[in-house]
Amino acid sequence: MARRKKVYEGKAKILYEGPEPGTLIQYFKDDGGTVTAPKPGAQTEGKGVLNNRLSEFFMSGLNSIGVPTHFIRRLNMREQLVRMVEIIPIEVVVRNFAAGPLSQRLGIPEGTALPRPIVEYYYKDEKLGDPMVAEEHIIAFGWAGQQDLDDMVALALRVNDFLSGVMMGVGIRLADFRIEIGRIWEGDFMRLIVADEISPDSCRLWDMRAAERAEGMPASDPGPLADVYTELARRLGVLPSNVTHSPKPTLIN
Fold first, then answer.
1. pLDDT-based confidence at 242, cuts 50/70/90?
2. Do the strands 172-186 and 203-207 form a parallel or antiparallel pair, or are they unpaired?
3. Which is the most buried residue in 35, 44, 99, 168, by most CB within 10 A?
4. In the predicted structure, residue 128 carries a pLDDT above the cut 60
């Protein structure tokens, strides 16, 4: 088999050249942690397989309701075919409940419902710790224009509506999540689409079915990382038959 050309490798994924111009193969690794528990270098067996299925589920759902994504199709247990995009170097974070950095910065009790979804921007630079930035920074440094920002917010809020509804339907509260957005060109026309992945790596999820904790509050112990992914996949009906981690309903982080 011909050796594939690696285009990029991150903490949780590898991108290879695709079989057709304008495509890439996205390979999901078992490395890394979640948005709530980053563990660089750590490995969890089967995590890449589950993230591949979960991202396929969410991206396909978004495509079906008219929210454009880079996802084309899943190729195998760990790989999917995606469109090549020019990634905007900004992580867009949508927060529905106070948690993590927001609670720490503003002193809002964790689990407090926000009066409206809050959209934040973080500059993608691991060496700098992905610092939070304002719209003025993004425009001044040429990372995106004002129209781009307006479109990014609109995309992020549509993703939020979709994900919140899907999660609520399986007893999970979507506290917050992050997405990446990229540019694609169709002739002389440019548009923005959702890229990268949507999985537990990039979401803060709270189990609404856990009777042992107070309403609106996250579980104090999310449990083993692998089972977090397994339980979400089980509830959504996308658990691969050869992944056998024991599902536990209190393991959504």
1. low
2. antiparallel
3. 99
4. yes
pLDDT of 246: 41
CA distance 166 to 236: 9
Contacting residues for 111 by C-beta, under 8 A, at least 6 apart: 97, 98, 99, 206, 214, 216, 217, 218
Which of these CATH numbers, 3.30.470.20, 3.20.20.70, 3.30.420.40, 3.30.450.40, describes 88-207?
A: 3.30.470.20
The whole-number pLDDT of residue 241 equals 67
Segments making up each domain of the chain, as ranges? 88-207
| Whole-angstrom distance, CA of residue 231 vs CA of residue 221 | 15
Share of residues in the chain with pLDDT > 90 (%)? 75
Q: CA 71, CA 195: separation in Å to the nearest integer?
A: 8
**Distance (Å, whole) CA 163 – CA 124:** 23
- pLDDT-derived band of residue 129, with 50, 70 and 90 as boundaries? very high
- CB–CB of 30/44 below 8 Å? yes
Residues 13, 82 contacting (CB under 8 angstroms): no
